[in-house]
Amino acid sequence: MYLFFISLSQIQIEKMVNFTMMLHPTRPAKKDGSKAVVLRVTNERLRKYIGIGYSCKPEFWDHRKGLFKKAYNPENFKELNNTIKLKIAKAERIVMDFDKEEKPFIYEPFKEKFLIKNEKKTVLSFFDYKIDELTKLGNIGNAEVYKVAKNALERFKPDKNARFQDITVKFLIKYEAFLRNDGCANNTINNYIRTLRALYNTAIDEGLISKDHYPFYNNHTRAGYKIGKLKTATVKRAISMADLKKIQDYQPKELSIEQDAKLFFLFSYYAWGINFIDMANLKWDKNIQYDAIVYSRIKTRHTKTFRVPIKTQLADIFDHYRNYDNDGYVFPILSDFHDTPMRKKTRVKTAIKKINNALGDIGEDLGISTPLTTYVARHTFASTLKNKDVPASVIKEMMGHANEETTEIYLKEFSNDVLSVASENLNIE
């Protein structure tokens, strides 16, 4: 039986097979200095190399991680690196299939299966393939993005036999018009078509379609469909201190969904704009200390640990939920039943929809013009500090953003009033 130790760039199989993504170590570089990106297969000290259709200059390759650096292609490097991860996952799956069939690892059959290209795969079936691969990688959120994009495409093109060669500039223009008529906003259309483009790029890598047919705009196909035109400025989502005071003073029925909605909103605001998914995963024994909330964000891959001081407002919310048994969770969102990433993802998605519906009702009852959602609490946290002269660099650290540019998305529409520093400024007056 094969035993796997999986990382982003390497899979080790019990002293027998080792997969590493790398630049070819012996083949000469091309004229532009780039080298072929290959999967190195090491079996019983023998090494073989399989090209995957990319080349890269050494300075644009992360040799430690076995991935492209951002400078290789700033716009699409994440999609390209995800393709590499899927190649690794494919290699793993082939060896697992050998194991199930009780076959020994032999390089030539492995290579044949690894390079196999299914020319008959349709766009919709390839969506399913991608969703399955992402799910196996544990990337549940990204898998959900592909599911939603697939559903949108199915509504537009019920022909289940559509191939990638059917996706042309004309096709994309009609698809955009359909989505617009279907009530989709620009940013939603942008997300659907960007996901379709990412799938198309993967299809090229898998040999399902030639890059000569590429319908999207880039440096080589300037007559292609432009996705960038769909981007629109982020709508201001923060609310005023007066509106915050209305929410704080609001008295919902005890044990109602409106009570949870109010407390979740205020908790996010006071806990440095914590995301709903991070709130849902908080546990009394793991994350709540006597004077601070200690956690790492689930949505991002960085390992930064947040330590949010427990002020009076947070302590009062904790006191409310300590009265209830939530299987060790702080909030009544997750339970022991949600024991897999998929179950957690599904539950959080359902819960946030209910909470946002309740917040919408609360906002209407209180006469707040901005539609209330849990995300408004996060924006309001950022804007409150900005309006009190807290530097964007400080807010960046408190929100867990990778860079200040991301923080500025939250802050760019807000005025710069008076007063002083960080979470001491969050009191609702």
The top-level CATH class of the largest domain is Mainly Alpha
Which regions have little confidence, pLDDT < 50, spanning 5+ residues?
1-15, 401-425
Q: Helix amount, in percent?
A: 40-55%
The tally of strands reads: 9
CATH-assigned homologous superfamily of the largest domain: Intergrase catalytic core
Q: Based on helices, strands and strand pairing, what is the structural class?
A: alpha+beta
Query: If you consult CATH, what is the topology of the largest domain?
Result: hpI Integrase, Chain A
**In angstroms, what is the radius of gyration?**
25 Å
Q: Give me the number of helical elements.
A: 15
Main beta sheet, described? 5 strands, antiparallel
Explain what you see.
The N and C termini lie far apart (64 Å). This protein has a five-stranded antiparallel β-sheet with strand order 1-2-3-4-5, with helices on one face. A two-stranded antiparallel ribbon has the order 6-7. It is globular and about 70 Å long. The chain has helices at residues 77-100, 107-115, 123-136, 140-156, 169-181, 186-205, 241-249, 257-270, 276-280, 284-287, 312-321, 341-366, 374-387, 392-399, 404-411; strands at residues 4-6, 10-13, 17-23, 35-43, 46-56, 61-62, 67-68, 292-296, 305-309. The longest helix is centred in the C-terminal third of the chain and has 26 residues, at 341-366. β6 and β7 form a beta hairpin. The protein is of the alpha+beta class.
